Automatic annotation (TrEMBL):
This is UPF0145 protein SAMN04487752_2376. It holds the Pfam family YbjQ_1. It comes from Carnobacterium viridans. Belongs to the UPF0145 family.
């Protein structure tokens, strides 16, 4: 399935709009990743644990959105937007959401 932030897909024409689809993931950061990130915050450097958690959450949100579009018979999702939020009293969770418009395509001749 084609997933794009643009409003069209080159070489194709949108034949129908199937509706807005969403993907949402809330992921907790474990204690050890949190301690490592705290040390990096103090001394500098990148937090590989947080980066990996964010990458996985983003991938799962896109996958969930794609499954929902497929259930509607879509060929592509256009106009995709992503958002990130921290949740919890200690900001120990991250929420990744994405949305886009599920569409059916036909080849331009």
């Amino acid at each position: 399935m084609i997933i794009t932030t643009t409003t069209s897909v080159e070489g194709f024409e949108i034949s129908s709009y199937e509706g807005i689809v969403f993907g949402e993931v809330i992921s907790g950061i474990n204690m050890f990743k949190d301690m490592g990130a705290g040390l990096r915050n103090m001394f500098g450097g990148r937090s590989q644990g947080y980066e990996n958690e964010l990458l996985e959450a983003r991938s799962k949100a896109l996958e969930e959105m794609e499954i929902r579009a497929d259930e509607q018979g879509a060929d592509a999702i256009v106009g995709v937007k992503m958002d990130y939020e921290t949740l919890g009293s200690d900001n120990g969770m991250i929420m990744v959401t994405c949305s886009g418009t599920a569409v059916k395509l036909k080849t331009v001749k």
